[in-house]
Structure formats: C-alpha cells, structure tokens
Amino acid sequence: MPAAAKQQAKKRFCEFLSRKNLRLTAQRQAIIESVFDTEEHFTAEQLLAWSRERDKSVSRATVYRTLPLLTESGLVREMDFGKDYK
Is the pLDDT confidence value at 82 over 80? Predict the structure, then answer.
C-alpha cells in the first residue's frame, strides 16, 4: 500500500473512532501502524507481536478489541482460514 493510502486509512480509522466516542490511545496507534505496515494476512497473535515491538504496553485484550473496530470501519476484512484461524 502506498504511503499516501496508508495515511488516508489511518486518518479514516481515527475519524471512525471519534464518531464512536473512542480515543486513539498509544496502544491503538501501535496496532494501527502494525496493521498498515504489512501487506500480508495476519493473525491476532502476529498483530500482537508486531504491535508489542512498537509499544510493549499493548495488551492482547486491546488487540482483540481493536480488530473488530478495524473490521467495522471497513479497513480490514476478516477471513476464515479454518482450524480456528481468522
């Protein structure tokens, strides 16, 4: 994804959070940066590891709460790969 598109996606997610009266915390910022810095499919556990490289305070719960928000915003799609992997 080109840099301009990444910036636009991040902005769109921030606006989405604002409409839902949610804050853009440092942990969410690390998660967003991790999501938009990859071009590959990822699991929640991979996203947690990548996000913790940016901010060690990112919790598993925050990742699992943020993923549905990203999906609801239309910026990320959930894909079912079977064997408990989405």
Answer: no
